[in-house]
Amino acid sequence: MTTLSTPAPPDVAPEGAAPTASLAQRPGFVRDVISVAGRTLRQARREPETLLPPVLVPLFFFAVLVGSLESIFGQAGIDQFRAFQLPVSLVIAVTGVTRAPSVVTDILNGYFDRLLLAPTNRFALLLGMMAADVVIVAGMTVPVLVLGALVGVHFVTGVAGMLAFVGIAVAWSLAYVGILYAVALRSANPTVTAQTFLLFFPFVFLSTTIVPREQMTGWMEHVAGVNPLTYVYAALRSLITEGWQTRTLVEGLIAIVAVGLVTHTAALAALRRRVSRSRA
Amino acid sequence: MNRKSATLTSPTGGCQEVGTISAAGLRRRFGGRWAVDGVDLDIPRGQIYGFLGPNGAGKSTLVRMLCTLLLPTEGRAVVAGFDVRREPLQVRLRIGAALQVAALDDKQTGLEMLRLQARLYGMSGRDAERRISELRELVDLGPAIARPTGTYSGGMRRRLDLALALIHNPSIVFLDEPTTGLDPASRMGLWDEVRRLNRESGTTVFLTTQYLEEADELAERVGIINAGRVVAEGTPEALKRAIGADLVVADVQGDAQHAGGVLAGLDEVESVDVRGSQITAAVGYGPQAITPVAVALADAGAEVRSLTLRQPTLDDVFLAVTGQHMDAGEDGASAGVPAHSASAGMPATTGKAA
């Protein structure tokens, strides 16, 4: 192949046109997080249909489990089955509620590149979306609390206990969504990201969702013993029926932190890979 | 184009470098394939530089390296006075880019996107509103600016995408195939905006395109890329002049290869390309050459169905240096198409630079 080159003009800046002064400056980490979170919340507001399942499914589970099992558990001596089930509804309501799938959309339609072209902090892109998730999840706890009040569930720890109840739920949700962001950023595939929801089933059904751990036997008891959700349930239930149980609450928080460490490490690794300039 | 030695401007970003783009031996490999294979650039402030090439030639990869989205595998590039490898943040603060697909969030309105973009570039609320007010004319969305961008047409999306790239008043704008998929009216409207931007604010524009007409109309200087390498560079006029002042194109019935060979022997003819039944002869002065060409074709026994005198296009330049046509289709799809050239005269334009 041959090449062809003609001489370049020495300077072709248009006459009278002064060099443009860029108005850009590095906005700072907090401002980046707020900007991204604000955008994410606007998106969520325009897709209210995505918030219907997290509202309806927990109510459905509560109605079915209480309706079918309350009398059986009553005969077995468990007299506060509604209080026992309310944390299950809460966990179902908040787990997996995330804007992570919109990351896939951003990557596929090129908007993620636009974000990377700006002088934004890369971690703020992830943290901003998670901050928005926290706001949405906090909102998702309200229908469950209303449900509890309607069916007569009383918090022995009072209003402070209810706030702690919401706080633990939000923390659990935040810990769990790390894996969804990891998959979304790593795969950039909407189907794979949606299927990640299936990971929730082993967490739920190999835990104390339906019966207390002391009622379990054999392998199920052992598996539930290593399932972090078991300890989250225990912490939530203790706030309703037992009062401020420091050990139970700390165990619940340790379980959340352990899950969060794993999932958020994966999410950060996926983010690093996605924003890497060496990536093919 | 010969490889330059790495004598790029200082990476400290002095005033003189604002708005300039330079590269030396820039290469990028994906797997075992070099997508960009040794590109040198030296683009002064305020120039509209067109980068022309077929699909897969390496245009977008080059833009992504210059915009700091991709690391070069080898070589060096300095944009607005800063090294893209070592000081990407400084580069990002000074450039704007509209990449191949209009990158919009369908759930946000045009106005929300502009405001968010301003925030992401650290602009104050007052500066943001002033710039949005200035860019409203460019965006030309009317009341639709308050509607989600998912409802926009292709032209509206492209205009908003360009406005997003300009929100922070960058000194350099990269436009990666900005008119692909647009209707002719939208395409020309965007050309006008690019010219106005360059004229009024002195913004350097680095434009990639697969449309020959676009490069010809817009660019003050053109680089032609093929298979990752810059194969020609210069002003459009100089590049076209370099392959001959005029072209005589004959559509013949009969042995076109033989007729092409006969034409190659004429004093007036500088080179000949035969593609199917079409013979293209590069000549020094068309009006003088057309009669000898017609006579020679008749002598060669070729039945001439049409004989046209025209000036060279950038496609002719591309053909001369690569042996292929650009052949950009209406849908924007293009690829280097083998010309099956008999090239009885000049296979390329080496040594004919203006």
What does this molecule look like?
The complex is a heterodimer of chains A (280) and B (354). Chain A is mainly α and 280 residues long. Chain A has twelve helices and one strand. In chain A, helix 11 crosses helix 12. The radius of gyration of chain A is 24 Å and the shape is elongated. The two termini of chain A are 27 Å apart. About 3% of the residues of chain A have low confidence. Chain B contains eleven helices and 16 strands. The relative contact order of chain B is 0.13. Strand 1 of chain A pairs parallel with strand 10 of chain B.
Total beta strands of chain B: 16
What is the overall pLDDT average of chain A?
89
Q: Shape of chain A, please?
A: elongated
Across the major sheet of chain B, the strand order is 6-7-8-3-9-10
The description of the largest β-sheet of chain B is: 6 strands, mixed
The sequence of SSEs of chain A as H and E is EHHHHHHHHHHHH
Low-pLDDT parts of chain A are: 9-16
Q: Roughly what fraction of the amino acids of chain B lie in strands?
A: 25-35%
Strand content of chain A: under 5%
Radius of gyration of chain A: 24 Å
Low-pLDDT stretches of chain B: 1-14, 328-354
Secondary-structure element order of chain B, as H and E? EEEHEEHEHHHEHEHEEHEHEEHEHEE
Any idea what the radius of gyration of chain B is?
23 Å
Structural class, judged by helices and strands of chain A?
Answer: mainly alpha
Biggest β-sheet description of chain A: none
User: Biggest protein-protein interface?
Assistant: A-B, 51 and 83 residues
Give the N-terminus to C-terminus distance of chain B in angstroms. Answer: 14 Å
Q: How many angstroms does the end-to-end distance of chain A come to?
A: 27 Å
